[in-house]
Specification:
The complex is a heterodimer of chains A (about 130) and B (about 375). Chain A is an alpha+beta fold and about 130 residues long. Chain A contains 4 helices and 9 strands, in the order E-E-E-H-E-E-E-E-E-H-H-E-H. Chain B has 3 domains: about 140 residues, Probable tRNA modification gtpase trme, domain 1 (Gyrase A, domain 2), CATH 3.30.1360; about 80 residues, Alpha-Beta Plaits; about 80 residues, Elongation Factor Tu (Ef-tu), domain 3. Chain B is built from 8 helices and 20 strands. Classes of the chains: A alpha+beta (about 130), B alpha+beta (about 375). The interface between A and B is medium-sized, with 11 and 18 residues.
Chain lengths: ~130, ~375
């Protein structure tokens, strides 16, 4: 599994790239692999306030429906509209073109894991 | 979890294993969509060894069988098969199954894995009804069942069978055959809507035959397939699955299985209840296909409404159709909404999304 070093991770298998009060959020390689081919994505509106852990959207594979939970509290400033018609990007490039939303945040979420911690967390799941 | 004789082979092939009603079974190998399309265009191989096999034989076998099932086994020639349901006296469904006539007085019943024990007990409980001797055996452990499905299934299988011309094995027929020296039974049946075969293999030979078919099928681009593709393939055909479309709370008439209910048969379990439903104007709800005209994917348990948003039914299965790339589902709806092209809506999370009642099967196949 690919777990980039510079990102933070949640137990719901989302990643966040934190950059001066703005975070890009997506699903991890592990998440896309467990889901299988993503065929449907539902994203929120820009401007919505999210609590930490709040469900902000849905990804569906042929077999499964999976909630998207925000790893951070903050306001949505951008959503990746491209993936709605290109759901394959979530499988092919979950840390790049398959990103989901960008949020503006005030406080970091202390409980997010580093890449080493997340890798360890994944090993514990198998 | 229970394992089929092919469990180790699945692990070697890096299948994703899931718990399916207490069975450790592969949900996918390379991917649901890829496997699904392989079956529609080439050929796929499924392990369905979890299915149950009962053999009913003896002088009273036919009468007994016809007491249990809604279809009429009296029409079966030796080597012929039929699809049917078994009902409770109130018309609720015990299980759906395929009955193969093996011999003059011997029948093979292939039942759903999750219902093996329930079916066995139910069939046993009806024994006192029969005047002539019958022998009932549960052979589920002895048989592995491999489903080879797709337009190229026949050319693949023919390469492994020397002494039989598969073009002479018609749909819903079964024959004994030798696969590389292994005695098997080959049936031209399946659950995908494609031409194909279900091959009954002695459990200890299962792995050998599984590997053989994958090896020989390289030219046909055969893929091992999991339960994920099995489900999407059967949904595209609107084939019912017990626990979804069928249960003890549903009757075969509302499930669209009137064609396997032979009310003109003298007697069978559920006959009076089903006759009454028919006489009172037919079932109040009907099993229909639902095709989305918006992007959402219908799923089991979602509510179906009319265009005003009034609830009219519930989805029993749903998926993204890998062949059509659109959401499709199977639902029970009030009978007045059953006609194709009737506009409906599906409650998907906090939104109502539009769809229509679809003609089924969702896809058309040419079948032998």
């Amino acid at each position: 599994m690919n777990v980039p070093e510079e990102l933070k991770y949640s137990r719901d298998h989302e990643w966040a790239e934190l950059n001066k009060g703005e975070a890009t959020i997506g699903i991890t390689d592990y998440a896309q692999d467990s889901l299988g081919d993503v065929v449907y994505v539902e994203l929120p509106e820009v401007g919505r306030e999210l609590e930490e852990g709040e469900v902000f959207g849905v990804v569906e594979s042929i077999k499964a429906v999976s909630d998207l939970c925000s790893p951070l509290a903050g306001m949505i400033i951008e959503v990746n509209e491209e993936i709605v018609d290109r759901t394959d990007l979530l499988n092919e490039d979950p840390y790049g073109d398959g990103w989901l939303i960008k949020v503006k945040y005030n406080e970091e979420n202390e409980s997010l894991m580093t890449s080493d911690e997340y890798q360890e967390f994944l090993e514990g799941l198998d | 979890m229970k394992k089929t004789p092919l469990y180790e082979a699945h692990l070697r092939q890096k299948a994703k294993i899931v718990d399916f009603g207490g069975w450790a079974l592969p949900v996918q190998y390379s991917g649901v969509k890829q496997e699904h399309l392989a079956v529609r265009t080439n050929v796929g191989l499924f392990d369905v060894s979890h299915m149950g096999e009962f053999v009913l034989s003896g002088e009273g076998a036919l009468d007994y069988l016809n007491h249990l099932i809604t279809n009429d086994a009296a029409i079966l020639e030796v080597g012929q098969a039929l699809y049917t349901v078994m009902c409770y006296p109130d018309g609720g469904v015990v299980d759906d199954l395929i009955v193969y006539r093996l011999d003059k007085q011997s029948y093979l019943l292939v039942v759903n894995a999750s219902n093996i024990k329930k079916d066995w007990d139910w069939i046993q409980s009806q024994l006192p009804v029969i005047r002539h001797p019958v022998d009932l055996q549960d052979q589920s452990e002895q048989w592995a069942l491999l489903a080879l499905q797709g337009p190229k299934a026949s050319s693949l299988l023919q390469k492994t069978i020397k002494r039989m011309d598969l073009s002479e094995l018609l749909s819903f027929h079964l024959a004994k055959a030798q696969l590389e020296g292994v005695e098997v039974m080959v049936a031209r049946t399946g659950y995908t809507g494609e031409d194909g075969f279900e091959i009954f293999v002695p459990s200890r030979k299962a792995e050998e035959i599984w590997e053989l078919l994958l090896r020989v099928g390289k030219d046909e681009s055969v893929l091992p397939c999991g339960l994920g593709a099995r489900d999407t393939l059967r949904i595209e055909m609107k084939f019912p699955l017990y626990g979804h479309e069928l249960s003890k709370e549903t009757n075969p008439l509302e499930a669209g299985l009137g064609w396997v209910v032979k009310l003109n048969k003298a007697e069978f379990l559920g006959r009076e209840a089903l006759l009454k439903i028919k006489e009172e104007g037919g079932p109040k709800r009907r099993l229909v296909g639902v095709l989305m005209t918006e992007k959402g994917i219908p799923r089991q348990g979602y509510s179906v409404t009319d265009i005003e948003g009034r609830p009219i039914g519930i989805l029993t299965s749903g998926t993204m159709s890998p062949s059509l790339n659109v959401g499709i589902g199977i639902a029970y709806v009030e009978s007045s909404f059953k006609s194709p092209d009737t506009p409906i809506q599906i409650q998907i999370r906090d939104r109502l999304q539009s769809g229509i009642i679809a003609k089924t099967p969702f896809i058309r196949r040419d079948k032998k």
